[in-house]
Specification:
4 copies of one chain form a homotetramer. With 481 residues, chain A is α/β, with parallel strands linked by helices. Helices cover 40% and strands 12% of the residues of chain A. Chains in contact: A-B, A-D, B-C, C-D. Chains A, B, C, D: Keywords: Heme, Iron, Metal-binding, Oxidoreductase.
Chain lengths: 481, 481, 481, 481
């Protein structure tokens, strides 16, 4: 039963829907309703080859996890493989693909990359427009995203002089696990969109410096592949998007426990899709680039139709929207011994509730500005927490992410009481631009910047960074270059 | 007695002034002094066809309401009709008409419209310059208009997590009347300038979602036509510009009562014409586009001459400029049983007086920045009212309008105590761009944005939106895109 | 003894210096050292015709006041007159003169001028670059000048509604003298630079509305000419730059008393030349335009040489730099019965001293930002005075000038306690653009704006404008268009 | 033993490394490890002529101080000299050299230079890109550098009037030494990069006005040459970068004591290299300009390699990073009788410690924003010190530097209690643009601006400038032009 293209093509609707992925045939008829991205995106490829749409988004174990063995229908026949190969070979590159390829060939040499902004600049050039739109997009007018970064601009240092700093050690521990710097990789989905080795680039790039990687539930490599890519001394955390069905959620937890992941970061700020316009618009931008502007004709587009969820929204349609402090945390405690961190605390009041719920840590985060527009910048929440509820810092570990691009940003958060800070997009950009070596470069830049900042502030170790060393100024400094 | 053009043309001055409107002849000699826009604009067309100037501004019952039966002189003769039709057909389109037509043909398909800004962008393209200038213009340097919108930029959310939101209901009641969203159509005049179906587009577009429409005294459709276009379950409010003559004002109130309008919004912030420069300049812009720049020669334009009032000023010249709390509210109460809302409260002090006058509601508004330049933004007035006079919210309903363009804007106002928020220009833009379906699209976008915002804040219904969920920040966030 | 050019040309140095002005010959040898602009500017024309440099700056009585009868040497002979006339006629126009002429021919008709900004725009086009630079220049980086205007942007209205305003009267009194509006012409020198009729345009333009004109000591028309141009019911004030020699100062006071001027505004903020770079650079800009960029060669320009004072600095080199409260005010009181106002108070402390010195009024002013860079904006000083020393307003009249361009600006200052506000540059621009009729237009625009603002605030007369009607906001509104 | 090029060329690695400087041969093998800029930069020239790289950076006594007599190997032979001369002559100028030369020929005449900004503008044109990048670069995104200047923008004057100022004296004393103005030259390295006479231009330019020059440890002229260029009445201070080896540091102190330097400014804010990206990037910018953009190929640039320190970082690699209040100040006191000033105090807390350590003065400075990004602007530190710890001003002298460009800036700092203010970059720009005469021009401009400001504030001498004359405003003024 190797299949011909003709045979496959007869299963092209919702009653019987087959697709070809990487030269193999699958019956996804029963899966149509469960697909997080909705059935219509699959039906577009019903009876046809779906490889190019499928691969950049799905981890390698997705088919195995989601389809029964009987739905794996087996390989195409030789003629079909030959035909698809010819089709693939003859496919004309899009303008965006050509642009991206050209940019790839013009990347500056790595020794000219001296800041995270440099890495982002290269990534912006080499990424496909679709990947760029997915990575950089944020909610509504992208104000919270920008404010996350701008918040750091309001905090100045009161540097101390005449303190010995020839030896300066920026290492620390997160939930008891060693790290050479007070930073970690914050969970970010779909790294494969930016580079074929995706999340694995990050894993390998973090190994030498023991920077801890938080792996997203929506990673584009499987949790197992990422674990396999890690070195023995390396720590991985898991970012849990909790499925609405507890049993399904538990299966996911068990899997990562067994793979040796060391903590659960429960995502609470992204339980429904948000409004990321840049992401939603990206297929239109690409369409228009290839085939010209679309114009209105009556009947096209019902007034009440949904614009679609973009890439991001599709990933979370089955997540639990009814989590509570009373129900969810005790359940999680009851099923796992791993430390639990709440990812997505956005105000002081919830930080208090988290402490009362006795979780091990909280990650002050608004999801990089990608979820609730006008959510307070995490640094501002950290500052309020430090001013108003200092005791919280004794009860759990506090982290922040969002907008961190410089060693000074890291040091400011640490001064205010953060155990460590997470970076998401910067790691995606680094690996998109230069793969694994880009990740190493990012860490090396941050290390140099953090150590220089600490020394110039008179601090020889993390514990010497204290709240009195930063001041929130009441004017509006110039923006970064 | 069908009239020839020659006969009509003999009545071309203030002693005997006839005009042709839609092939019929009217004697407006006695009406010249009563015309809100002044006699000179009519005299420009004395003895001639005035249809093209008359129609986009006046409701269909204007002639009936303002002229005696004896002043309706009857139809033109056939030759006259023929001549006018030929003249009309041979009229060359202006550059602005051509531009607008071209834009109409290039509108993006409706399924690509995902924000209110998109609707405004299309409207800006397709509207005649004159309509655009009338809709978007505001007082003086348009600072209050811009500040209305910018005010929302200073209010951030303190989102709550771990609250059940899978079910989320944004419906509420305004003066006891149901609405699926805490929004309503704020009164805005002359919708016909933007689309032949004008206000009726709004009425029909609001029907499915039961969004309440406040109809302006200066609507370009008659109150009856709008009522006729509404569905049985739909609520209409009436925005009253009170005539200086109480009897005339009363006639207007009686009319809308009988038509089933459900509340009176008494306009108090627009009792004299204001200085809308963009509106005043618009005929010059169009003239120059057609025939080149005008230059100075001595004697042209007396120093003390008035620049004209623009479209807006003309509409209100006969309004009551001497309303008082002591006189006007009791009178209004005495003549109608409808709920009374004061539209145009601009400070806390007057909110208190309104409560003392026992009205049913107040609409904090500065008329979209179109009247008093440097009037405080309504959101700032709402914030002061909430901070300083919380008890007011128990005595009457509070609404705001001005600058609302996003679901987050709506939610912020509701958090601070607004029962609902009004949108004016956005509805005009939506119907100008796509007619009735544009109005439905606008509502559908706002519904999605409001529900998403509520869920991401941990609120499953309107009552769960509370003042502690917003914070007025003391820095200056980046502006919207 | 009509003089030949040859005879005149023999008196061309500081030992014997003759100049020709308007076809007459003057011996200015003894005057060289007394000339406020320094001797070098005169020596440039020694033995030659100086008319074109002399006329736009000097009032017609300057030669009479400054030279003895014996120094008036009499007319040129016919041949000399003939030669000069030919030279004049053959003089090629400069690029700047051509540009200015062209702009003059393209002025928009007066009925299209609807704001003070419109008048300024026209003036900027039609003025010679030199005049423009002199009028608009301010100290250093022109920050105080800009801040003067921007200060108004921070004050918002708390408008009151439901108050009778059909009748609205903006008239008031300044030092007991009637004015139809709470504004006056603030002293500004050298109006002739902008228009041949200079200050006289302002006088005549103000007559119908009884707007009071403060005439500068450095007016380019004589005090007598200006008085002669005024109507019987018109009030003139005098802006005194006190000469360091009391007797000389007294002579000036006696002159204006006899001409019927009604008050003395003693200038105290401009006792030394300031740094107006735009003014200083203007001859270089013009030179380069005509003849190309100047470049460095060694020896050109000693390091310690002064850049020159610009037009403005020259006017005040002989003024009294050692005035004190103890000495100067009593002296002034002793020599005149006219009301005394101190022009140039820049802080609350000096307002108190002025009240103690029992002067009749103070003009809060930083000279339009032309003197001390970073002097507080007058509106901010007024606000501090109102908040901190309310009783001062009962002891003397308070005025402000600087940055006023809108009716709202006027109303804000009046709300805060100003009896009236002065405008300087706007009157210069108005008369430069359209002469006397431009001045009338300016007043007519302001009247309309002031009345509209008052009505929309619920104020029917000046006394109803109170401090509680304005609020200084703590955010940064958008700038004017 | 005059050497041939062939003989020298055989010593081209780290085992035996000879270089040619100014036609003489040196054995630097043993010095490689001590070279502050690292060995690699020397090895680039091993066995070859290093003159062009060496000269613009090193003082003339560097070879004598750092190499043993036996390592001075003597002159090249005639043929070698001839060859090098020919090579030099045939060297094609780079695009940057041509640009700079052209700009030098187009400098505006000195009498058109009327502000420090003018001097900077010329310098930016005439400097080599490398020198410009070194001078103007600052840490990270150059925010602290910009904020240093912007801080002055927030302080406004409360000018006093009616005070005698015809005589105005801006002279004062610094550590007891006379100066005609409350300013001094703040230490700045490598003036030779901008002009062949480098620091000597500054020395000679300061002589007439007795402005005190603080000479950097890293000056590009020797301390002796600078002392020799000074006039007998002129005061020099010494900016000490303390070597980590006390004995080496002491040798440097003894040298300047003997040369007559009058005070030690101990640098404490620049003990490790900082991140000056513009400086680091400058060779790449120049390379690309000459030879095109560099692009990435695998293996080029290890991820963990350092980007290099730039010019600035190299100068301080051997400095003492373990200075403390307890150890360093007592040691310094024990070895010298000169007054001691701490340069680089960045917060109030350290100002208090400095007073307790009984030093003679503190220079509030963040090294012109070149070291710790987000260090508070010195003017803000001065303001906090004045508000919070007024008594400190009685215990030691306080100076600031950073961002001073106007006389108003100087006067503001003096009002707040600064004895004097330092300027660094402006002196480098002035001498780069016009040599010694540029320095005199700079001082003459500042003198005029300071005196004008004092007079317009009612201050006739430095002591009359008091804290109540400045106000820190709570809005954001427009930026300088």
């Amino acid at each position: 039963m190797p299949w011909s293209l003709q045979e496959v093509s007869q299963h092209s609707d919702s009653k019987s829907c087959w697709v070809i992925i990487d030269k193999k045939v699958y019956d996804v008829t029963n899966f149509l309703q469960e697909h997080p991205g909705g059935s219509s995106i699959i039906l577009k490829y019903a009876g046809r080859d779906a490889t190019s749409a499928y691969e950049p988004i799905h981890p390698s174990d997705a088919l195995e996890k989601n389809l029964l063995p009987s739905q794996h229908l087996g390989p195409l026949d030789n003629e079909a493989v030959h035909t698809l190969t010819k089709v693939e070979a003859s496919k004309k590159k899009t303008k965006d693909e050509l642009r991206s390829e050209q940019a790839m060939n013009k990347r500056p040499p790595l020794n000219r990359i001296i800041s995270l902004a440099d890495l982002e600049d290269v990534a912006k050039q080499v990424l496909s427009y679709r990947a760029w739109a997915y990575y950089c997009s944020a909610a509504d007018d992208e104000i919270s995203m920008q404010e996350n970064a701008r918040a750091f601009n309001r905090f100045f240092f009161k540097a101390r002089v005449m303190r010995p700093v020839s030896k300066c050690d920026p290492s620390t521990r997160i939930l008891g696990f060693e790290t050479t710097l007070p930073i970690f990789v914050s969970g970010a989905a779909l790294a494969k969109l930016g580079h074929p080795q995706g999340e694995v680039n990050i894993t390998k790039g973090c190994a030498p410096s023991k920077i801890i990687q938080m792996v997203s539930s929506n990673a584009s490599f499987s949790y197992a592949e990422i674990a396999a890519a890690s070195s023995p001394s390396q720590t991985l955390f898991f970012q849990l998007y909790k499925h609405k069905d507890d049993a399904t959620a538990l299966k996911r937890i068990r899997e990562v426990e067994q793979l040796g992941y060391k903590a659960i970061f429960l995502t609470v700020d992204a339980i429904v899709p948000s409004n990321r316009e840049r992401d939603v618009r990206s297929p239109w931008v690409l369409d228009d680039q290839e085939t010209g502007i679309k114009v209105y004709n009556d009947g096209e587009g019902a007034a009440d139709s949904d614009p679609g969820l973009g890439v991001a929204g599709a990933l979370i349609v089955n997540d639990d929207r009814d989590m509570t402090w009373e129900k969810t945390i005790p359940w999680l405690r009851s099923v796992t011994k791993l430390p639990i961190v709440i990812k997505g605390i956005q105000c002081v009041e919830d930080a208090i509730l988290a402490a009362e719920a006795k979780v091990d840590g909280i990650l002050l985060s608004n999801h990089g500005g990608r979820q609730l527009e006008y959510s307070l910048p995490p640094l501002e929440v950290l500052y309020r927490l430090r001013m108003q509820q200092q005791h919280i810092f004794n009860k759990l570990e506090v982290y922040i992410d969002g907008g961190i691009r410089r060693g000074t940003d890291v040091v400011k958060a640490v001064c205010l009481g953060a155990t460590a800070v997470g970076l998401g997009r910067p790691f995606l950009y680094a690996q998109s631009a230069y793969g694994e070596v880009g990740v190493r470069k990012l860490i090396s830049i941050l290390e140099r910047e953090i150590v220089t900042t600490m020394r110039l502030m008179g601090a020889a170790k993390i514990a010497e960074l204290t709240p009195d060393m930063v001041e929130r100024v009441n004017w509006h400094p110039v923006a970064k270059l």
